[in-house]
């Protein structure tokens, strides 16, 4: 007798859902965030090179002040985006880092060895190339700019390749970019901090300890962590350590465990559904049936208990960051003015260092350190991929963009001309790296099929 698979029919979408469904499908596409980011970058570049250039810059320098009690925080809009909203972005990065180390590709030494080694090479070699090009000059301070990989753009290019790219390769790139982000956070905290207010930093440390205690005591409400996190952010903002670091530290305190296991969730769910069915005789709808309302609430509580706060928060934040915060960051930071003598700008040491670091340093560093880790038998290649695939991914590592723009702003606060040079280098290098990576990965199908035939 054949076994029947009982599949629940999907809920009938409301009219507004049917209208918005094309936009929802777009938002779920891996490349969607990158497309929106590109669009906002183009808008910023056009605005910075239009007759409204002064209005564009004046807008982002508009002061915005918040007062509470006898204290006030007053910064330009540009500053609020970079130190405020980007703290949320780094909070999401921190959640991704914690998840990867707990249950992802970084959870075991064997699986973590390859992306960690590749990311290390992808940070060290570009930084050395930039430092060599700018040796002895004021621009040397920007050595951290070509160290970063923009995970949204890189994965977006991989998504365009479709099934010809093995899933293991996408996982490898994601893990590499996450380790890369962790390195960037450490660089920001250690090397791009001008001076430290130890009193404010001490307050931040106390808040961080309280957050850890709350985690241990079983506090799971996101609001609890948001309120404490806001105090942590203000403390770091006033301490001199870049405020976005607070986002990563806050993420480390978010609980990553469920309150009930699989079997307990199944048992509780069955009881709740039985109770809901038993109460179904009274009242024309759930709204007028107290018993069914209680059952629905109990099921909601069970579903919440079966999810870790880390998982829920990461899921909720993803779209706000991808389609809100990062595009706004691009609008505020990507507005580079392109003068008439563009070729001269490419000869500037900062521009040249960024371009060589991202286009040349990234692929060499990632491929070389990955090869060494495999050669030393510390790691192994992702399933279904060979060295041509690793080289293709290493080229995509040269797409720096978001994090590179962020570090550039930190590296040259007193030298806007260097920041403009760095932006130009970032844009050109990221575009070239994306094209080269795409061309290299187009040849993967034959390579993978040949390898599978040899197995």
TrEMBL record:
Similarity comment: family membership: Belongs to the NhaA Na(+)/H(+) (TC 2.A.33) antiporter family.
Keyword Membrane assigned: yes
GO BP terms in the entry: regulation of pH
Gene that this sequence comes from: nhaA
Catalytic activity, as annotated: Na(+)(in) + 2 H(+)(out) = Na(+)(out) + 2 H(+)(in)
Cell compartments where the protein resides: Cell inner membrane; Cell membrane
Record InterPro entries: Na/H_antiporter_dom_sf, NhaA
Any GO molecular function: sodium:proton antiporter activity
Membrane-spanning ranges: 32-52, 73-92, 112-133, 145-165, 171-192, 199-219, 225-251, 317-338, 350-372, 393-412, 424-441
One of the record's GO cellular component terms: plasma membrane
Alphabetic keyword roster: Antiport, Cell membrane, Ion transport, Membrane, Sodium, Sodium transport, Transmembrane, Transmembrane helix, Transport
Annotated membrane topology: Multi-pass membrane protein
Main localization (coarse): membrane
Name the record gives this protein: Na(+)/H(+) antiporter NhaA
């Amino acid at each position: 007798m054949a076994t029947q698979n009982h599949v629940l029919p999907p809920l009938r979408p409301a009219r507004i859902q049917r209208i918005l469904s094309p936009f929802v499908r777009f938002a779920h596409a891996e490349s969607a965030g990158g497309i929106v980011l590109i669009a906002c970058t183009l808008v910023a570049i056009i605005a910075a090179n239009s007759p409204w250039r002064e209005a564009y810059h004046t807008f982002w320098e508009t002061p915005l002040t918040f007062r509470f009690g006898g204290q006030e925080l007053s910064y330009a809009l540009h500053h609020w985006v970079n130190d405020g909203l980007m703290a949320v972005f780094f909070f999401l990065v921190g959640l991704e880092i914690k998840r990867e180390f707990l249950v992802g590709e970084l959870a075991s030494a064997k699986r973590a060895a390859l992306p960690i080694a590749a990311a290390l090479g992808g940070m060290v070699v570009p930084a050395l190339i930039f430092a060599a090009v700018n040796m002895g000059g004021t621009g040397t301070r920007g050595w951290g700019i070509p160290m970063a990989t923009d995970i949204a753009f890189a994965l977006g290019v991989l998504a365009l390749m479709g099934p010809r790219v093995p899933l293991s390769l996408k996982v490898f790139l994601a893990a590499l970019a996450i380790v890369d982000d962790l390195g960037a956070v450490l660089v920001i905290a250690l090397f791009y901090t001008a001076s430290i207010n130890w009193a404010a930093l001490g307050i931040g440390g106390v808040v961080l300890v309280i957050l850890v205690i709350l985690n241990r005591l079983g506090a799971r409400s996101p609001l609890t962590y948001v309120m404490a996190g806001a105090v942590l952010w203000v403390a770091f903002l006033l301490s001199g350590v870049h405020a976005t670091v607070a986002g990563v530290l806050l993420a480390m305190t978010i609980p990553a465990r469920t309150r009930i296991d699989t079997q307990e969730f199944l048992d509780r769910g069955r009881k709740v559904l039985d109770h809901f069915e038993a109460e179904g005789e009274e009242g024309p709808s759930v709204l007028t049936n107290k018993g069914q309302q209680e059952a629905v609430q109990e099921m909601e509580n069970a579903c919440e208990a079966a999810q870790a706060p880390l998982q829920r928060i990461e899921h909720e934040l993803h779209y706000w960051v991808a389609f809100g915060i990062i595009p706004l960051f691009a609008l505020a930071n990507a507005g580079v003015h392109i003068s008439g003598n563009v070729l001269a700008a490419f000869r500037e040491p900062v521009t040249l260092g960024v371009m060589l670091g991202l286009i040349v340093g990234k692929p060499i560093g990632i491929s070389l350190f990955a090869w060494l880790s495999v050669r030393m038998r510390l790691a192994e290649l992702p399933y279904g991929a060979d060295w041509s695939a690793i080289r293709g991914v290493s080229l995509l590592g040269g797409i720096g963009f978001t994090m590179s723009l962020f570090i550039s702003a930190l590296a040259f606060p007193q030298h806007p001309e260097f920041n403009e040079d760095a932006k130009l280098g970032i844009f050109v290098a990221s575009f070239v790296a994306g094209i080269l990576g795409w061309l290299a990965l187009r040849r993967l199908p034959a390579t993978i099929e040949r390898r599978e035939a040899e197995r």
